[in-house]
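WP5 quarterly update. Target: Pur operon repressor. Source organism: Fictibacillus iocasae. Length: 275 aa.
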Amino acid sequence: MKLKRSGRMVDLTTYLLQHPHQLIPLSYFVERYESAKSSISEDLAIIKEHFEQYGYGRIITVPGAAGGVKFLPGISEKEAEHIISALVEQLEDPSRILPGGYLYVTDIIGNPHLVNQLGRLFASSFSSRKIDVVMTIATKGIPLAYAVAAHLNVPVVIVRSDSRVTEGSTVSINYVSGSTKRIQTMALARRSIKQGANVLIIDDFMKAGGTIKGMISIISEFQANLAGIGVLVEAQEVSERLVDDYVSLARLSEVNERENRIEVTPGNYFQDKGE
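Structure tokens (predicted):
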């Protein structure tokens, strides 16, 4: 379709935003807009400068016959600080305290706009790594995993506590829950992950890290590779952490039922960007 330059710029920007981490040949845009390759290159240069200036991400160019352009989503440090600060503030609301010292976070995980922002944070943190699939366990973290996967343009696989007929044959392992020290089981369909795939684990909450350790074990059963670990909230006071290398957005310091008080601080996002 033949467009004026303003319309072409808008459509080109939208296309890149909707196809992150996908290598797109310049010839595709030449045919799409019926424009010269030099014009498309000029448009991309303007969009690239704008994206980098406002922290939307990067546009990289891959030379050669099989090359093209690729958009890598990102986020500015200022915006990341704002999102994490807002998350911490929400988590510290005393009304979230449930009997037994648990926290109510369903409203956070169920907020599409907020979850999309959190997904951008993790996608930006791991943008420099090769990731083929996002893995999570069948808990409240599923929406977050899908948000991260959308920004990375990769599929999601969900580890469950038991196998399902609709998923065909599965691989099952036993693991030790870090918090309760109980032996538990997790299963994943054999078709979920290809051998040699690079897997990013996303979880909503980590205490000792037993569940994540189990997912790491099941990744090895598929002869796949661990590409990184992202955690929405980590518990601070843990005697023995089973996982060391991870990126967290918030750190839960204390839940005091008697004083009706919750203490939350930013996680290690700015100390370890997954690079």
